[in-house]
């Protein structure tokens, strides 16, 4: 199995490439539009066929590369049934996505957004914006809900083995990964905090909305592709 | 064994943490001064004792955290005999640094600077600024030499097994790692290029010096610590 973590410095987004080195089939999790050239070249150099793109959620801080990767490479785009309508397969809790011999198990982990998913593959947990290294996603837009996020993390993620590696969709402090055990013990929003503590803390935060919110969310509901010309010109 | 890649976004520097989970002894490769708090906290949270700091070379783009980590945690600082005079152990080709059960083998890979080392540990190769993902370090200061860099990469690094993972000291395009086989085949400065091609290319580049060159190099020769007061006041 090949595993590669990629970073978009403009949005501090991590994209993950996983591939079965026998069948050469690959999956990208949370690709970024501005990095499609980089990612396409990397796939070509590695001799991989991109068959699946998986989104942890409809992102508000960057535009996805999913639609372009589908057009260029024929990949099937997958995300939550509660998320973008543009996808080829709607995922729900307990689903397993097979890419060659790889199996990615789908966990519904809403709270950052109502469509947030995490993916578990061979001891690696891709948490999107639900669980970050020493942090969590925010819960103040896109139907976010702090109580729901607390439940998702504690009931779905923190029940996994402590050694499970945690790979988030973002980091802003230079961490690339963590583990379930480490976050249970040291995540300052969760360790030793009750659900009520967490909800109170999240509701008391005053932070500006993501810079790209108004652009990214509608774009990502179309898998990052520009809407067709006729839908841009309602008078036509 | 624990392995963790850390990033300093201001200088695009990767720092590496390796630890023996039995003895809890740890080594940091190329720590950054501004990240000493982050790294110290991480070591504490993980219950690790930092016993060694290793530098791949005297850096020109950031100030090292080595001296502060030595003062705070008692770590021994190690680097090339041709590098900073402040170190506790001077390393040369073929040396092995033991940290618990971990063994880090020292490879002299000069050319980016004359003191550049790479370290090999359990299939992971830490290449400093000698070999980057799809690139190399520059060779136009600190006794850099493009012919020497070509020889270092092709004779010391590219002779390792193709599956050896490559972890550079920097990346500017969002790559976190590569492999020896991948760089042999796809590094645009090296794949299909002769030594003369490489030397010509490196000598023809016109790029400004690192922003921190004049500050970082003298600071790093003192392991990132401010010179003692009396040496700052020669008249005292």
UniProtKB/TrEMBL annotation, chains A, B:
The organism's place on the tree of life at top rank: Bacteria
Keywords for this protein: Acetylation, Dioxygenase, Hydrolase, Iron, Metal-binding, Oxidoreductase, Transit peptide
Name of the featured protein: Glyoxylase, beta-lactamase superfamily II
Protein family (similarity comment): Belongs to the metallo-beta-lactamase superfamily. Glyoxalase II family.
Keyword Glycosyltransferase (UniProt): no
A single GO molecular function term of this UniProt record: sulfur dioxygenase activity
Gene Ontology biological process terms from the UniProt entry: glutathione metabolic process; hydrogen sulfide metabolic process
SMART domains from the UniProt entry: Lactamase_B (SM00849)
Domain annotation Metallo-beta-lactamase: ranges: 12-170
A Pfam family matched in the record: Lactamase_B
Cofactor: Fe(2+)
InterPro entries: Metallo-B-lactamas, Mito_Persulfide_Diox, POD-like_MBL-fold, RibonucZ/Hydroxyglut_hydro
């Amino acid at each position: 199995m090949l595993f590669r973590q990629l970073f978009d410095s403009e949005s501090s987004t991590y994209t993950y490439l996983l591939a079965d080195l026998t069948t050469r089939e690959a999956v990208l999790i949370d690709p970024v539009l501005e990095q499609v050239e980089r990612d396409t070249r990397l796939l070509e150099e590695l001799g991989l066929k991109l068959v699946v793109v998986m989104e942890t959620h409809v992102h508000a801080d960057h535009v996805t590369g999913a639609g372009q990767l589908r057009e260029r490479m024929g990949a099937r785009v997958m995300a939550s049934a509660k998320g973008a309508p543009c996808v080829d397969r709607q995922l729900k809790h307990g689903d397993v996505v097979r890419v060659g011999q790889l199996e990615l198990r789908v966990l519904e982990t809403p709270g950052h957004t109502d469509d947030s998913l995490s993916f578990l593959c061979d001891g690696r947990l891709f948490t999107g914006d639900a669980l970050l290294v020493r942090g969590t996603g925010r819960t103040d837009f896109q139907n976010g809900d702090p109580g729901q996020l607390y439940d998702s993390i504690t009931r779905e993620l923190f029940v996994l083995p402590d050694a499970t590696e945690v790979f988030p969709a973002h980091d802003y402090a230079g961490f690339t990964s963590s583990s379930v055990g480490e976050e249970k013990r040291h995540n300052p929003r969760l360790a030793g905090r009750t659900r009520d503590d967490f909800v109170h803390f999240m509701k008391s935060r005053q932070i500006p909305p993501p810079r790209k919110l108004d652009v990214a969310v509608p774009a990502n509901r179309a898998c990052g592709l520009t809407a067709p010309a006729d839908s841009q010109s309602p008078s036509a």
